Amino acid sequence: MEPLENGNRFGGKPQDITPYIKSGKKLQERGRIVTILSNLMASTFSLSSRTFQLHWNAGGEIDSQLQGCIKDQAKDLFSAVREIAALIRNLGWDIPETNHKTNYPAINLETDDLPVMLEELVHNHDNILSYIQSHLRFVAESGDDTTLSLLKERQRIHSENAIALDTFRKGRVAHARGTA
């Protein structure tokens, strides 16, 4: 297996898959880790699309600071999809099709209520945080430090993004109520 892009923190060097091949249990663990990563990749891609959708379509209602925040988050999410895909490939698997249902509603662009749109993004980040949290222990116990590192990094970033968006949302609600 050839190394992937050198600039990719989680995909730069393939993991030694020999221990996985020699042990059926390790192979099952690796399969479960690939499933976890595939579902995370699908959720991240979905959220990336929704974040770009808001960035491109919300228009004049968004001030430049919020617009920059949303744009940065969308770019990070898109990059995260690449990192997760690289990690799956470095585990020795092709990128699988996924049936993972994200249950994320599309951002409602028919509304002029920016706080509602921001709340939807916060909810999407929270769903991903819950998903990551539900799998951290298994990944830690499997000894896959590279995947564990990626999950912890994504957990930190999704938490920060949710807080930032929620702060903007609360500021918008307070401003609309005249309490800002």
Give the helix/strand layout.
Blueprint (H helix, E strand, L loop, with lengths): L17 H5 L1 H34 L6 H27 L23 H29 L2 H33 L3
Helix pairs in contact: 2-3, 2-4, 3-5, 4-5
Global Rg? 18 Å
Say how many strands there are.
Answer: 0
* The CATH superfamily title: Ferritin, core subunit, four-helix bundle
CATH topology: Ferritin
**Total helical elements:** 5
Question: Can you give a write-up of this model?
Answer:
This protein has a single domain, classed as Up-down Bundle (Ferritin). It has 5 helices and no strands. Helix content is 71%, strand content 0%. The longest helix is centred in the N-terminal third of the chain and has 34 residues, at 24-57. The chain starts with 17 loop residues before the first helix and ends with a helix. The model is unreliable at 1-24 (pLDDT under 50). It is mostly helical and 180 residues long. It has helices at 18-22, 24-57, 64-90, 114-142, 145-177.
List key phrases describing it.
180 residues, mainly alpha, Ferritin, elongated, disordered N terminus
Characterize this entry briefly.
This protein has 180 residues and is mainly α.
